[in-house]
UniProtKB/TrEMBL annotation:
Domain HAMP: 64-116
Cited Pfam families: DUF4153, HAMP, HATPase_c, HisKA
Keyword annotations of the record: Kinase, Membrane, Phosphoprotein, Transferase, Transmembrane, Transmembrane helix, Two-component regulatory system
Molecular-function GO term, any one: phosphorelay sensor kinase activity
Protein's organism: Nocardioides glacieisoli
Histidine kinase domain ranges (all copies): 124-334
Protein name, UniProt field: histidine kinase
Catalytic activity: ATP + protein L-histidine = ADP + protein N-phospho-L-histidine
Enzyme superclass (EC): transferase
Gene3D superfamilies the record matches: 1.10.287.130, 6.10.340.10, Histidine kinase-like ATPase, C-terminal domain
SMART domains, alphabetized: HAMP, HATPase_c, HisKA
Ranges annotated as spanning the membrane: 21-40, 46-70, 384-402, 408-426, 433-450, 481-499, 519-544, 556-578, 598-623, 644-663, 675-695, 716-737, 743-764
GO cellular component: plasma membrane
């Protein structure tokens, strides 16, 4: 491993001092950025998030080097758990962490030495003893068979001891092969009962006395290596027979595990002295004999064979309270090649009854992972430097191109760049829902270029952000929509480890610190010497002026803050798209249905009754006409219908909430479903009547008092609520309930796109002028308060003289020469308005009132 590049903090010998310096650096960065932003008149809402983000970045940069040895120790420890002792921790730190790393390296070297010596010992003993033992066994067999004269009783005892030594050598060789990872399994379907009976016969043939009772299903077949499983069974059965008292029976039972899937189990129980709980793991160690006459290697071999098959072998409490009970459990087919997955025999057997079936055990959640828990797990450890680069490009484009004179084409361009940077890294970018939301978001950012009405631009921008976030996270319910919005700012904290990995902060061989230092020194040299030579040589200075735009100090600082802000928010959205939070962790939950039907049905019927009473009052007012309304309430009909519009809109929204709650708390029986559909169906029908009544009432009020953009917006909102209620009715009948939230979100976005498409300010101006043509009344002050989008309609409908009088007071936002000349601020609405102002020659008229305009204004109201 390449040694880590030393850092200035490595010379600090106290971890406490390092932490203090880290805190001080973060605070200093935040304070300096705040002072710089304040001096350059940057808005506080932009200074605060940028200062916090950069302070977190400095913390990540400095802290990564401090904890890098600890991360490396964790990686090496996991490798040591798998038997790899070659890893070391390279650090130049002199603090407590550096001292711990040095001690860790010494421990790893000692363990590697012990492991190497142990392997050499086993290999040497196995190799050196096998040849003479084989020769002695052959000689003793001849003597025992009478080939040569001998006392067969004593020679038979010598033969038994020689065979015992032979089994010891075989066990040692087997353990060495397991350690070296050269044992492979030859899997096939095996009849478990037949295999057990063959193993029992082999144990009996070897001279082991005692009875064996086998109760294994005859039709049970398992997948495994027959030779290895027989080796396991022979060792286990031999151990049980050796410890079972004379005249007792060793019971062997087995069967398929719960849930199927290749799971099976086998138990061997004897009535001997048993194994004490504190010794149940020790007997599986090499030479861990309990004094029963065995070599101490049989059970060690048996456990590793079980692990090779993806199973466990352990002692349990005997059912009768005496004796020993050994249980083998196999969860399913193990790995095809056990070499990489079998733990090293240098480990002590774990006390846990579970056996690892993968090379690396699951890592415990720490740090940010533990903070966010299962709501936002880290799905992958791959770095995302391309994502960081795309977000940085979006930030640079925003800092260089975004106009400070108001939304325009540059705003749309930056919005598309930010969205593209997040979309291209999205995990679900090919999902139809993600594609749909992305398309809607693109449509919603276009009004920043096409319209001049700032309220439409703001609504569309917020809606585009919300819809895009719901698309990349896969949200499909109301809680999911809300959590998607919350997860975006939270990604600045959740994505810090990922950001560090992407730039490889603090890792060996990392080039990031060197690249950062090189860029900073290069920029400093360019700025200092470029300024000196530009002032020293006018020709060189003219070249610099042509290449570098003339920017004030405030503008430079403001654009720097803007670039950092856009980079941060784009990177947060990109991380959320790359690693979406589990936003549906609450949306998928269904509360327990209420046990009594009346608990949900009675409240719904009460609401139905209130709606019926309201509709009866509406019908009575409609039949009675304006005379009845004036006599009863003292209001005109227009005032009457307008007074309750906001309440009716609220009632419509609450109806959707009532339907949602009732549908989740109702039971699942057929009777419950019929009552639910009937009661909620009636409520939805009544709600649609309320929507129609509200829209009709607003139409009457607009005819009487004129049109406004606010009234138009609430009309669209109420109409959208009516569509949602209608969709609820259709979904309840067709069983499309899970699609309702997405339908509501997409239809709301489309409604906003449609509102922007009709150019609301121009549309309202046109409707008011239609009313003027019909009634001779025109609300001139309101007409002059509209955005520049209304200018073409006003000029076309009023004629040149009247249009000049109205347009000269129209507050055309940012319509000064600097805005019009700034190509980055180009906006279709403002451009058309500027053309209209030039055509009607508004510039020639003073902004003060004149007799001519006074007469025109007087004529608008008769």
């Amino acid at each position: 491993m390449t040694p880590r590049t030393p850092t200035p903090l490595d010379t600090v010998s106290s971890l406490k001092v390092k932490l203090g310096l880290l805190v001080a650096a973060s605070v200093v960065v935040a304070v300096l950025l705040s002072l710089l932003g304040s001096a350059a008149d940057v808005p506080p809402l932009l200074v605060l998030p940028v200062s916090v983000a950069l302070a977190l970045g400095v913390t990540q940069l400095l802290a990564a080097g401090m904890v890098a040895p600890l991360r490396r120790m964790t990686e090496v420890s996991r490798a040591m758990a798998r038997g790899d002792y070659s890893g070391r921790v390279r650090t130049t730190a002199t603090d407590e962490v550096g001292q711990l790393a040095a001690a860790f390296n010494r421990m790893a070297e000692d363990l590697a030495t012990v492991d190497r010596e142990r392997r050499d010992l086993i290999a040497t003993v196995s190799h050196e003893l096998r040849t003479p033992l084989t020769a002695m066994t052959a000689l003793l067999e001849n003597l025992a068979d009478g080939v040569v004269p001998a006392d067969s009783e004593h020679l038979g005892a010598a033969l038994e001891e020689a065979q015992r030594l032979g089994r010891l050598v075989d066990d040692l060789l087997q353990l060495s092969r397991l350690e070296a990872g050269v044992v492979e399994l030859d899997r096939e379907q095996v009849a478990l009962r037949s295999l057990v009976e063959e193993s029992v016969a082999q144990v009996a043939a070897a001279g082991r006395t005692g009875a064996f009772d086998v109760t294994v299903p005859a039709d049970l077949e398992v997948e495994g290596d027959p030779a290895r499983l027989r080796q396991l069974l022979v060792n286990v059965l031999d151990n049980a027979g050796r410890h079972a008292p004379t005249g007792t029976t060793v019971h062997v039972s087995g069967g398929a595990g719960p849930g199927g899937g290749g799971r099976w189990w086998l138990e061997v129980a004897d009535e001997g002295g048993g194994v004490a709980p504190e010794d149940r793991e020790r007997v599986f160690e090499r030479f861990g004999t309990d004094g029963g006459g065995g070599t101490g290697l049989g059970l060690a071999v048996a456990r590793w064979v079980a692990q090779l098959h993806g199973g466990t072998l352990r002692f349990l409490d005997p059912a009768s309270g005496r004796g020993a009970r050994l249980r083998l459990e196999v969860d399913g087919p193990g790995p095809a090649s056990p070499a990489p997955s079998v733990p090293s025999l240098t480990q002590e057997p774990a006390v846990s009854t579970s056996t690892p079936t993968r090379p690396t055990p699951a890592r415990p959640a720490t740090g940010v992972d533990a903070l966010f828990g299962r709501f936002w797990p880290e799905s992958g450890k791959a770095s995302g430097w391309r994502t960081v680069l795309a977000a940085a490009i979006a930030g640079i484009i925003a800092g260089a191109a975004l106009s400070f004179h108001g939304p325009g084409i540059s705003w749309t361009l930056v919005g598309l760049c930010c969205g593209a940077a997040a979309f291209l890294t999205a995990r679900h970018r090919r999902d139809p829902w993600t594609l749909t939301c992305t398309g809607l978001a693109v449509l919603l950012v276009l009004p920043m270029t096409l319209l001049a009405a700032e309220w439409v631009q703001l609504l569309c921008l917020l809606a585009a952000t919300a819809v895009f976030l719901c698309g990349v996270t896969g949200a499909r319910s109301l809680p999911g929509f809300l959590l998607s919005g919350i997860a975006w700012p939270m990604s600045s904290l959740r994505g810090l480890p990922w950001f560090g990995r992407s730039l490889r902060f603090g890792r060996a061989g990392s080039q990031t610190p060197a690249v950062v230092r090189t860029a900073l020194w290069s920029l400093l040299g360019l700025g200092v010497f470029g300024t000196i030579f530009a002032t020293a040589n006018p020709v060189f200075g003219s070249w610099v002026d042509q290449l570098v735009p003339s920017l004030t100090f405030n503008e430079i600082v403001g654009r720097a803050f803007l670039a950092c802000f856009v980079f941060a928010v784009t990177l947060g959205a990109a991380y959320l798209a790359l690693n979406p939070a589990q936003v549906e962790m609450y949306g998928d939950r269904r509360p327990t249905p209420l046990a009594n039907r009346f608990e949900w049905l009675v409240p719904v019927l009460v609401v139905d009754g209130v709606f019926l009473a309201f509709m009866a009052a509406q019908a009575r007012a409609l039949v009675g006409g304006e005379d009845y309304i004036r006599q009863t309430t003292g209001l005109t009909y227009a005032e009457f219908v307008h007074q309750g519009f906001g309440q009716l809109t609220l009632a419509t929204a609450l109806t959707v909430l009532v339907v949602w709650v009732a549908s989740r708390r109702a039971g699942e029986t057929p009777d419950d479903r019929r009552w639910l559909l009937g009661s909620l169906g009636l409520l939805c029908v009544l709600t649609l009547l309320v929507v129609a009544s509200a829209l009709r009432g607003m139409s009457v009020y607009q005819d009487a008092y004129g049109f406004t953009t606010l009234r138009l917006f609430v009309d669209v909102f109420e109409g959208w609520l009516g569509f949602v209620v209608l969709a609820i009715m259709v979904a309840g009948v067709a069983g499309w309930g899970r699609w309702l939230p997405r339908i509501a979100l997409a239809s709301g976005a489309l409604a906003l796109v449609g509102l922007a498409a009709i150019n609301p300010d121009a549309w309202v101006a046109g409707r008011n002028l239609d009313r003027y043509d019909a009634t001779g009344k025109l609300d001139v002050p309101y007409l002059m308060s509209l955005s520049p989008d209304a200018a073409p309609v006003i000029a076309d409908r009023l004629g040149p003289e009247a249009a000049r009088c109205v347009l000269r007071l129209l507050p055309l936002t940012s319509m000064d020469e600097e805005t019009l000349e700034d190509a980055r601020a180009w906006n279709l609405g403002r451009s058309r308005a500027a053309t209209v102002l030039e055509d009607v020659d508004v510039a020639s008229m003073p902004t003060t009132a004149t007799d001519e305009c006074s007469g025109v204004f007087a004529s608008f109201n008769g």
